[in-house]
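Reviewer 2 asked us to include a model.

Predict the structure of this chain.
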Amino acid sequence: MEKVIILNKKKTPERLFNEAISVCEQKYTKEHKPFDRACARLDYYFEIDRLKKEIELSEGGIDHNDSRFNLPYPKFEDYAKMDRFEKLGESEDNQEKKVNGMVENIVIGKTEFYVCKQRGHKIGVHVPLTKNN
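Predicted model (C-alpha cells):
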C-alpha cells in the first residue's frame, strides 16, 4: 500500500503573509526594481516568534489559532525603497540566437546587482533592453 501525505491547506497567518508578499514582489519585479523579500519575511517572523514567546511565558502554552497571531503586515513599500540598497554593479544578459546558420549572442538586457544595507541580502534585478533606453 502506498503512503499518502495529506498537507494542511488551512490559511495560517504565515501562509497568508507569504501570499501577500509574493503579490508585492511580483509588482516590483514587473517594475524592474529591487525588493528585499528576505528582510520583510525576517521582520514579520521575528515579531511572530516574539509574540509566541510572550504568550508561552504568560499563559504556559500556545494556541496557534489565537487571533493575536493575525499581526498587521509590515509596509512592503519600505522594503523596495532605493535608499535601502547599495548598487554593486551590473552585467549584460545575452541570449544565443541562430542567424543565417551561425550562433550569435544577442544582448537582451542587463542584470543590476544590489545589496541590502540592513542585513546584507544580495538581490539581482533583470532589466530588459527596452527598459534600458
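The first strand starts at residue 85 and ends at 99. The helical segments are 13-30, 37-59, 129-132. We have added this to the supplementary material.
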